[in-house]
Every structure is written in C-alpha cells, then in structure tokens.
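The record is kept unedited without comment:

——
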Amino acid sequence: MKKVPQGILSFIESHDCFYVLGHKEPDGDCVGSQLALSSFLKTSGKRVHVLSSGPFTRTEILEYEHRFRNEAPPERDFERTAALVLDCSTMGRIGDVSASMPPVPIAFIDHHASSAPSGDVDYIDSSAPSVTTQILLLMEAMGHAPTREEAELLFFGLCTDTGFFRHLDESGGDAMRIAARLVDAGVSPKRTFYLINGGKSLFSRKLMGEILMRTEPHYDGRLLVSSISLEDQRRYGMASRDSDMLYQLLMGVSGCEAAMIVRQESESQCTVGFRSRERVDVASIAAAFGGGGHRLAAGLSINGGIEEVTDKLIQAFGPAFSEDLPE
C-alpha cells in the first residue's frame, strides 16, 4: 500500500467543515469508511455532514442508514468548507445527493483503478484492499488511534471488500497486519462475520435458490450467468439481496473463471455484477459500459431489459476467453 500523500493531509488540516460522501447503492466499505472518517474529523474539531444517495438495500448496512443525510445542508459563510468523496473517484457515481452540493473544493479517497485523472490532493491507491484501510492509515498519519467504534467500522469495510479475507492472495500481508491492529483496538471478528453474513431472511435463501437454478454456463462453463427479475423482487422483497454468498457459490463451481448476475431494476434499466477468479479483468469489461470496480469484482448500471443486456455482456467476455476457444 502507498504512503498517505501529504496533499490529502494538508487538505484536511486547511478546512473547518466537510461534506463526506460515498457512491450511490453503498456497501460496507463505503459506509464504514464514511462513518469512521466522519468520527475522526469530529474528534479533530471539524464540522461534518455525512451524505448518501442510498438506497440502503443490503441488510448488513440497514442499521446505519439513519446516520446519513440525503441532501447537503448549506455551508456557513465563515467556514472553510470542502468535500471528501470516498470509495469512488468521480462525482458521477454519487447519485442524487450531488444535486444539492455547493461548489466547494473536493478530494477523492478511493482504491478502485480509474482512468479519471487524480488531483494533487486525491488519495488513490489501487493496491489498498479497501477504502477503510486507507482511512486507518490517514488517521494514523495524523496521530489518531481509532476508537473501538471506529475500528469496528474500519474492520467491517475491510471484511466486506475482501470477502472476509477470501479474496486476498500472497500480497495481502498489509491487509492482515491492518486487521490485527483493528482487532487489538477491540474488534471482534466473530461479531463482524455475523453482521455481514447473518440475519438474512428465509426469502433471501429461496431467491438464491431460484437464481442458482436458472444459472447458465457459457464459454465451456468458464462464465456462469444468471439474473434477477422484477417479479423475483416483488415476490421476495428488495431486502432479499444477498449477492456475496451467491457469487461465492458460483465461483466455487469447477471450471468457472467468471460470474455475472444481471438484476432488472426497472422496466428500462438493469444493474450488473461481475466476479472473476483470477485471469479475467472484469473491471475493464464493466468500464466499457460505463461501470467500474476492481479487476476481480466490478459492476455497472445499463439501460435495457434482462435478455438484451445479458446477450450484450456475454459477447463482451468473448475476447477474455478467445485465446482458449476451440477453432
């Protein structure tokens, strides 16, 4: 992981009030990094507004929804106000809350690979396993040891983005050392595991069964594809989303190198999630359709129905497998 750049430290020191934002449809890393950073900033004497466009559809983050505002309050004329945007590197991923944002200086803190140029004060580190690990390093660089609550939020985000360390390889030593520091600060890995993986509804398990039943193999089984319809969501509820376990099951299939789930969000729009075992760079496939993410985990939002979107994206995987396809 990279050293925290001096630019972001000076940026924080030189402002009195912050809007702390994350991407729309937040996950545990986004929520954990926003809340932990906000807590630290308040401890440092800053005023903070924690903002999110939502929706908070993941069961593990529902308890945090009340701590976010969906509209930016006005800044005070006498304050030096700025915005810190976490877990994404463009304002285009912020969602509706961006419409109420005043024109203040902005710095991005993100660990996703991005083609967007970073500014002098941005803290972009694609080698970081989560944004929460970057926030911990930032806190430590500014002489702050996380409280137990902050450590729990940081560990929550780290476990979310590493699949509770499943996605780490031999280069994951920094992540494990950071995890140990957070546990020393009072975090219970057992409690965090249940927060992420427990408390699911029976409906979520029934929906998962249907999604698995309709999964189809492509490219000789190297790509597994399934979908979630509007009817599924009407029947089982939006809160039945449980994508991490679903991807885990699909990626455990022998011969599977990548998985794709297409979810119909409205009559004219879908969201798509990708996972890859190793060789397929799903972030580049997502980026070609306006999405983004990590090399092994990415997503996008795209106009169209399930069949149209699915066919288009299956074709997009062609080049990734072409060298191995029989002639």
